[in-house]
Specification:
The protein has about 80 residues and is of the alpha+beta class. The protein is about 20% helix and about 35% strand. Strands 1, 2, 3, 4 and 5 form a five-stranded antiparallel sheet that branches. Strand 1 and strand 2 form a beta hairpin.
């Protein structure tokens, strides 16, 4: 389960950042309005690489799932 592998390190109206607990890669996703009033998470995050044997891009999909679920659960996105 991806949630167990990540910590949410920032949650604001404009940003959600998650960090992998072992590799320490940080994935920063922007939260934006789409022009019709809906709040969405931008798909392409800024990635800050930590350390470890796991490449940051291999964890991208799981990081996106965790960030989106967190933002949706807290009402930051629709």
């Amino acid at each position: 389960m991806p949630h167990a592998e990540f910590d949410v390190v920032t949650l604001s109206p404009s940003t959600v950042r998650v960090m992998h607990r072992v590799a320490h890669h940080i994935y920063e996703f922007a939260l934006e309005e789409d022009g019709s009033g809906r709040r969405l998470m931008r798909a392409r995050p800024q990635v800050t690489c930590g350390h470890g044997d796991v490449p940051a891009l291999e964890l991208l999909s799981a990081a996106e799932q965790v960030a989106a679920a967190t933002a949706r659960h807290t009402g930051m996105i629709d």
